[in-house]
Design a protein that fits this description.
The protein is an alpha+beta fold. The protein is 20% helix and 40% strand. The protein contains five helices and nine strands; from the N terminus they run ααααββββββββαβ. A hairpin with an 8-residue loop joins strand 5 and strand 6. The longest helix is centred in the N-terminal third of the chain and has 25 residues.
Length: 280
């Protein structure tokens, strides 16, 4: 009897162990591991589900982020640190200042190193000879003439403050007598052009009319001129000049032999409106 009971218990225990092992084999691996925590290795990391963010929490994070903040007055626009820096560095529009217009009375400053001048005015000339046998029986000659005056000048301007002026001139008188003169000129541009004193040395050829003589005679000589120009407005001004010459002689020797080689003294005064151009 004891042997039967022991045998029955042995067979029943085997059957129970087989049934339990089959149930455990059918369960998932995770459940099997969870069912027996003692079998889990302490080095194996445990995975836990990521915490979910609520909608209100995500909105607060977005608002706190500096990348999502936009400057005032630009709602809805995407703002970055570069755009904020460009906005801060943007320059305000500057007011345009109109350039001051130069006064019409101020002399025009030289632009380069050349200048030109034009003159038109009046010239008074006195021509005389103390020893000349005229055909009317007189032994002296004198002619005081009133003439129109024209002049041109062209030259170089430079030096300190562009005060020095070197050039050439060509002028003429026409009226009761006729003459043509050419030469060199030196001048100083003083007080920024308000005053221009000048001196010139040249050659002059002039017509000479003698009483009771229908032939045309010419006299010639070297001349010197001293004058000053006073500026009025925009390069225009007034010139006052005086001219003297070495004793004039007849240009042709045949004429000079007829009148015994006379010599003539000359002086002239010129007043003219003058225009200086320092931009050519």
């Amino acid at each position: 009897m004891k042997r039967v009971v022991l045998w029955f218990l042995l067979v029943g225990g085997c059957l129970y162990g087989v049934e339990e092992s089959s149930v455990i084999g059918q369960m998932p691996m995770t459940q099997a591991v969870q069912k027996d925590p003692s079998t889990q290795s302490p080095l194996t990391p445990t995975t836990s589900p990521a915490p979910s963010l609520d909608t209100t929490d995500s909105e607060q994070i977005n608002q706190a982020s500096p990348m999502n903040q936009s400057p005032k007055g630009q709602e809805g626009a995407i703002s970055t640190p570069n755009t904020q820096q460009n906005t801060q560095l943007s320059l305000k529009p500057q007011e345009k200042q109109e350039p001051t217009k130069p006064s019409i009375f101020k002399p025009i400053a030289p632009v380069g190193h050349s200048y030109g001048a034009f003159k038109i005015g009046y010239v008074y000339q006195n021509l005389s000879s103390k020893n000349i046998p005229l055909k009317n029986g007189a032994n002296t000659y004198r002619l005081a003439s009133n003439n129109a005056y024209f002049g041109l000048e062209r030259g170089w301007v430079g030096g300190p403050y562009k005060m020095l002026m070197f050039g050439g001139y060509l002028d003429a008188g026409a009226g009761e007598t006729y003459y043509l003169s050419a030469g060199g000129v030196f001048a100083l541009r003083l007080l920024d052009g308000w005053l221009i004193p000048r001196i010139a040395i040249g050659y002059q050829l002039q017509h000479l009319g003698l009483p009771q003589d229908s032939q045309q005679h010419n006299i010639q000589s070297g001349v010197g001129t001293i004058g000053v120009f006073a500026h009025i407005a925009q390069g225009f001004g007034v010139s006052l000049e005086g001219r003297w010459g070495l004793p004039f002689t007849m240009a042709r020797k045949a004429d000079a032999s007829i009148y015994r080689g006379p010599k003539f003294d000359m002086y002239a005064v010129m007043v003219s409106f003058t225009f200086y151009d320092f931009g050519i």
